[in-house]
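Protocol step 4 of 6: record predicted structures for both targets in the notebook before any analysis. Target 1:
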Amino acid sequence: MSTKIRVPSPLRQLTGGQSDVQVEGSTVREALASLEDSFPGFATRLFEPDGSLRHFVNVYRNDEDIRTAGGLDAALSPGDDLSIVPAVAGGRP
């Protein structure tokens, strides 16, 4: 099944500047693996060495954080979109 992934600006150099890409997968994990297959370099930016999602990376299925909706093994349905959202920190106290 084809799923659209929204790619944040800091990672678009990996997709040749594309903000949205189509990948295959029936789970979030499969879709992100397909993203890495099509655009190498994502895995090291998204995942810890043990395969878990990095703490500062959020992934949303539609408008729902996957960490509260089945994690990387959350099923994807036709029409679902994924968004990669890096956490932002800093600023003035």
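Target 2:
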Amino acid sequence: MTTHQYTSPQQIVSSGKYPFTMGQMRHLLLYRHRNGLHEAVRKIGKRLVLRIDLFDEWIEGQASKHQSPH
């Protein structure tokens, strides 16, 4: 059985590992179905948590979308 690590948006912001403010996280989560982040988000009751491995993949995917071809 594979175990996944989940974290709250607040923990993402306070960790220092990711360059997001709480306002930016709220925006990303609000538009998660448009920006593709919904794959990494789990809703438990009224709370949203992020699956870290999928969140990291989403970030890397964003980088490849915005690189200019040379």
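Step 5 preliminary note on target 2. The chain has one domain: 6-65. Residues 14 and 21 are 9 Å apart (CA to CA).
Proceed to step 6 after PI sign-off.
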